[in-house]
Design brief:
The structure holds 2 protein chains of 2 kinds.
Chain A (H helix, E strand, L loop, with lengths): L20 E13 L8 H8 L8 E13 L11 H16 L2 E2 H4 L14 H12 L4 E2 L2 E11 L2 E5 L5
Chain B lengths: L1 E12 L8 H8 L8 E12 L11 H16 L2 E2 H4 L10 H14 L6 E10 L2 E6 L2
Parallel strand pairs in B: 1-3
Antiparallel strand pairs in B: 1-2, 2-4, 4-5
Helix pairs in contact in B: 2-4
Classes of the chains: A alpha+beta, B alpha+beta.
């Protein structure tokens, strides 16, 4: 326990100085996808997307690392409520995507919702789009979405304009 | 946006510099100075940075893999870094220097639309070297 009279050496206000801290929460979901463009021939799709273009699809155990940046709240000592974060990730990502075929069941990758090719890049951007509006507090915001397609390939996305 | 791809290679090396006496080399590099060398299963992470193109990809995976295979893995996998890798000639085969050599070898043939952002090499699971590349 920190005594009430304790003043952190970096502090001007009696609690830890406002310093950006990063908090990362991990989640997993398994899903299948096909990466191909209907405007291209099978050969062209194979050249652009490689094995990811096989028409009937294939799956991955995607691993998602959601990083939030912010100042620990002076009262709670937390950057963001981890239970709330878990809930948000479940609602926005895991529940709608786990054990689903992204091209057939998840917007914007279905024909009806835009037919966006579910590359790991596009999936990371979609996850950012879903999470960012829900992770907003006066002192915290979404910092990075890291999406592992496999243990050997991952995307980092920080909301840059496409 | 960044994409990181992981590769693996096995290689041997010995840390020794002609600038120091055998005794000083032994003191400085310890076990890594053992005369006959030793090996590691290196893990190489190549990070590229860019904007997804019309296909929704920053980089074509097969093109990146082919580049890394040709420029790096074919030259270092199951090789002796002190003997077999010209990019390290005249340099101590530390993983720091290896990271610079990997950067140079990749840039020698880099034609990808995304830029090379980072080279990270783990010599063992406990020692990792990270180079931000311009």
């Amino acid at each position: 326990m920190t005594p009430a009279s304790f003043v952190h050496p970096d502090s001007a206000r009696g609690h830890l100085n406002r310093k950006i801290m990063l908090l990362t929460r991990k989640a997993e979901f398994s899903a299948s996808h096909v990466c191909s463009d209907p405007a291209l021939s099978p050969e062209e799709n194979r050249a652009v997307y490689g094995v990811n273009a096989h028409p009937a699809g294939h799956g991955h155990n995607f691993v998602l690392e959601v990083t939030i940046e912010g100042d620990p709240d002076p009262v709670t000592g937390m950057v963001f409520d981890l239970r709330q974060l878990k809930e948000i990730i479940n609602q926005e990502v895991v529940d709608p995507m786990d054990h689903r075929f992204l091209n057939c069941e998840v917007a914007p990758f279905t024909v009806a919702t835009g037919n966006v090719v579910p590359t790991t890049e596009n999936l990371a951007m979609e996850i950012w789009k879903r999470l960012a509006p829900r992770i907003q507090s006066p002192s915290a915001r979404l910092h990075n979405v890291r999406l592992f397609e496999t243990a050997d390939l991952y995307i980092d996305y920080r909301g840059e304009a496409a | 946006m960044r994409l990181t791809r992981r590769y693996r290679f096995a290689a041997s090396h010995r840390l020794n510099t002609d600038a120091l006496s055998p005794q000083d080399n032994a003191r400085l590099y310890g076990k890594c100075n053992n005369p006959f060398g030793h090996g590691h299963d290196y893990v190489l992470d190549v990070t590229v940075e860019g904007v997804p193109d019309g296909s929704g990809q920053i980089v074509n995976r097969d093109t990146l893999d082919a580049l890394v295979n040709t420029q790096i893995l074919a030259r270092v996998d199951h090789r002796n870094l002190n003997v077999d890798v010209p990019a390290l000639a005249g340099r101590v085969a530390t993983t720091e220097n290896l990271a610079f050599a990997v950067e140079a070898m990749l840039k020698e043939r880099w034609t990808l639309p995304a830029r090379l952002a980072r080279v990270r090499i783990a010599e063992t699971p406990r020692n990792t070297f990270e180079l931000d590349t311009q």
